[in-house]
Design a protein that fits this description.
Elements (H helix, E strand, L loop, with lengths): L2 H16 L3 H28 L2 H17 L3 H15 L7 H16 L3
Helix pairs in contact: 2-3, 2-5, 3-4, 4-5
């Protein structure tokens, strides 16, 4: 999905589920983007450290943030990371999964 499609999806989700007006949505999106970029940096840090417990918890937070914005497809990747961490899966390529999320998040939020 391209940036414009994601942005439309976010706006529609916020209007439908939270009954927000356009002005409020325009104020919230940059805050959401900044928070999500911060979460992504934390995921990368935890994956590099190999801290599975904290990586699972951080992935849970990312999943929630993405779902709050209506981004279920991206939240699914965060959910996968979370579940694998909870199961103690040290064979998963967490860096690759996080990199996929990271590139999409930064592409989405580059102008915010």
């Amino acid at each position: 999905m391209d940036r414009a499609a994601y942005l439309h999806l976010i706006k529609q989700h916020l209007k439908t589920y939270y009954l927000l007006n356009d002005e409020k949505i325009e104020t919230m999106i940059p805050v959401f983007a900044a928070t999500l970029r911060s979460h992504m940096a934390r995921l990368a840090e935890l994956a590099a450290d190999g801290n599975m417990e904290q990586l699972g918890k951080a992935s849970h937070a990312v999943k929630g943030a993405l779902l709050n914005m209506g981004l279920a497809d991206l939240a699914e990747t965060a959910r996968l990371i979370e579940l694998r961490c909870k199961n103690g899966d040290r064979t998963a390529d967490y860096r690759s999964l996080i990199s996929q999320l990271h590139s999409t998040v930064f592409r989405l939020s580059e102008d915010w």
